[in-house]
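Researcher: Batch entry, complex prediction.
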Amino acid sequence: MSKPTISEDAIFSDPLYVEILQQLRPHADADTNISPQTSITRDLGMDSLAIMDFIFDLEDAIDISIPMERIAEVQTISDLVAAVHKLQQEA
Amino acid sequence: MAIFDKFQSLTDNHDLVKSFGQSPSSLQFEEIISPTEAVLNGRRTILLGTNNYLGMTFDETCIEKGVAALREEGTGTTGSRIANGSYNGHKALENELAEFYGMKEAMLFSTGYMANLGAIGTLAGRGDYLLIDADSHASIHDACKLSDAEVIRFRHNDPVNLAKKLERLADKPGEKLVIIESIYSMLGDTSPLKEMIAVKKKYGASLLIDEAHSLGVMGATGRGLCELAGVGDDIDFITGTFSKSVGTIGGFLVSNVPGLDIVRLASRPYMFTASLPPSVVATARAALSKIPHATELRTKLWDNATQLYAGLKNTGFDLGPQVSPIVAIRLSDPQKAVALWNGLLDAGLYTNLALPPATPLGWYLLRSSISAAHTSQQIALAVELCTRIGRELGLIPCPLKTGASVEMMNVGGTRKSATKPDSKRTAEPKKPAAQA
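Model: Structure tokens for the complex:
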């Protein structure tokens, strides 16, 4: 595994990243190694319906609504962390 | 060609379906005999998947009115109502729709899909919020793409989740428009309308309900779920289609909200497509005039729906959650779903094959829609064919011989132990992970 970048180091200690991983696990393939650069759409064996369910669970867990157009921009878990932080700042 | 490379997963799915025989996208009926029968591949086939709920496509009055309008006003309008003007029939049908629903105003669209596109995509603009059910029809999703509003999904038929989403928007300026459907088209389940209305009222949101599958089907005079639930006054907007119980094509928006007329000048799907041809308008008017009085047809439709649902449920199929004119068999194995659909076609029964992601929870669905025009013999035959082929494919248990059943009942003492499948067949019905 390549050495994490500085931004990845920061993300590992981000409580939001930890929460996302926790919410993701029940929906993703059990044996997948998840990192900040993991693609939510490609790497986790999740179809669009599984992703939608995961987003619903995450929304409930962190009490936020993630508009569909924001979800459409997200590729990786790192993208999702950034998108949610931006939404929290806008709230 | 590379331009088509992005459709590879669609191609793969289509190839899978084709590998079993027929493909839904390439079926061609050689003759339409009645609302419930057609000739397919030289074989007389029962139509159990055409949303022809009242059998209105062959109604004599509708046909006569359509033919008369065709002769009197020609084959088409050749343009939009904004460009070419309205015909008398357009305005008359709008007035009749408004009266039928007890609403102030109505607008016609050229299809039901375009009614949702033109209504939802226009009513919610920049700075507004669209709150849509997770199982929304494609036309609602596409309408959201057309709108500049922010789009938030809530869990299917879940007023509590909707309330959470509206609560988070409570301090935000901008209109909030909640979009639901009366009967959801894949599984046939209905919206918990009263609960949804209570939530939208609490948070000052507006509500649009798509009554596509309930017009003519529900309520004492066929107005749909709103009539059945007795909540007409609490609904802000209703969209619907003429392509199901009305038996032709076209869509509409009706509302009590003052000033709806301005939407005609703002809605691109209304402005930039040809208006409904006079013959279609005439058939829709004839059908709509019959719907309030079609009590016997509605009774027959629900009797048929109950017969099909009970028949399939009793043989062990996993169905949608409630009796409805849409009855869907839920399957987890794509190959068996395709094989079942093909087997039924070969036996003379046409149903719909619905695949993810168009289906809830990733089910593979064998979807049926029932008509008042079906005879109880046709429904019984449909149950019999589904049962026979479902057993051959190991989708449902096979019955035991009477003696064996009694013996097992005596030994085991429970019905469960007595329904062990025939050893020659594939064993248990497969349950999807989502249900396990």
